[in-house]
Design goal:
Largest sheet: 7 strands, mixed
Number of helices: 4
Number of strands: 9
Length: 184
């Protein structure tokens, strides 16, 4: 099955470092923790770094299974601390903890991922394995960024900075089907 990918490069994409396809070894699964794709795009376009770039995944999968490429895989996107140079970031549209990301009383992530999202993700992962010959591993953002921070409602409490893709992500179905090894 072929996937129709909608190319919508971010305004600063040419400022992101280039890399050969052979350097990509890891896919990192994220959720947007925002209500919709439009807001995710808005956040992705924000310039946050001295280079003129912002934070964004490479691919975004909407709830209806539509896939958007904001950053080519041959460019380094800013999506996960410490792993950007060798990874592809895939964002699944999901509200996560929105809008109370750092409130200790709102750390549940209870929106399920849609069947259409997971089906599109599976096809995308298969296509990425062909395009990036050294792609061997998959991880969740929560697996790689385990930093704690003070809760916004009570700074004496520590919460996880990143929890995505969260407990509703179907790892047990995705990992065996994609042929990648889960990195934790």
């Amino acid at each position: 099955m072929s996937l129709n990918i909608h190319d919508q490069p971010l305004p600063y994409v040419d400022l992101l470092p280039e890399r050969p396809a052979e350097t990509v070894e890891l896919v990192v699964i994220h959720c947007t923790e925002l209500p919709d794709l439009a807001m995710a795009r808005e956040y992705g376009e924000k310039v946050l770094h001295a280079s003129g770039a912002g934070n964004s995944g490479h691919y975004y999968v909407d709830r209806d299974g539509a896939v958007y490429r904001y950053v080519p895989g041959t460019r380094v996107a800013n999506h996960v601390r410490g792993h950007n140079p060798n990874s592809i970031g895939i964002e699944l549209v999901n509200r996560g903890r929105y809008p109370h990301w750092w409130d200790s009383r709102h750390q549940q992530m209870d929106e399920p991922y849609t069947d259409a999202q997971i089906a599109a993700l599976s096809v995308l992962l298969a296509q990425l394995r062909v395009a990036f010959p050294n792609l061997r591993q998959i991880a969740g953002h929560e697996d790689l960024d385990t930093a704690l921070m003070p809760a916004s409602d009570d700074p004496s409490l520590q919460i996880r900075r990143k929890l995505d893709p969260g407990p509703r992500f179907p790892w047990a179905a995705v990992v065996p089907a994609c042929g990648l090894q889960r990195l934790r």
